[in-house]
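One such shown below:
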Amino acid sequence: MRGRYYKMDERLQSIINVAPLIQKLMPLDCMIGITDREKFLYYLPGREISLGSDLKGRKISTEDGLYHAINSGREHSVTIPAEVFGIPFKSLAVPVKDDHGQVVGAIALGLSLKTQETLLGISKMIVTSSKEISEATKELAESAEELALQQELLNRLSNEVLEQVKKTDKILKFINDVAMKSNLLGLNASIEASRAGDQGKGFAVVAEEIRKMAVNSAQSVKEIREILDLIKERVTVMNSKISQTTDIGHQQVAATEEIYASVQEFSDSAHKIEEVAKIV
């Protein structure tokens, strides 16, 4: 019976022999434990992950994943938080069976989740930051769009002002024509009044007033035209600047929308990183 037991132990010994190689092949820090049905036969700590002492010869605890794997005949997996041993890790215990399907022991792999937790922390930070940036960018895009709409309104208003100023040119031309005709009429009236002698003196006064009114009207038309020309010039410049600003506003809207889309993609990538980290 004793010899048979050690024959079974040879299967476990083979696993013990390759345990260091298994550890080297693992991309993450890990520890390995191998037991028979009652106690630890071998324990290999990781670079950082360790249970603190050599477990060889120690009886298997009923709380251990190895115990559950041996007694159920199925693999057993559990995640151990950092609060227990200082480093979070995932424990996977697999029963070892003989040629007859009888469980003779088990092997457990403790895989460090330190990198996973780091990835999860980074991904959550990225998601939070991306959300804040997305909200700020969205608000900026909305503000830029509102600004562009207001600038378009100003552009339309300035164009309307220019049209109204252009219409005054016709009015001023009409007033100027009236002033010229009034001046000519006053001049003719003065000539006729001088021919009439004393009898035309009263008429001469009226003719002179008509000429003065015509001259004053012509001068007023000139001054008004100069003012309107200056207004037209200023409004034209203002219209040009508004158009440029409107174009910039549209560009800003487009740029912020692109930024918003990029941030959303960045956030999606962070979620994917989080999902990948959970695979381990």
Remarks:
- The mean pLDDT is 79.
- Residues 114-196 form the longest helix (83 residues).
- The longest strand covers residues 103-112.
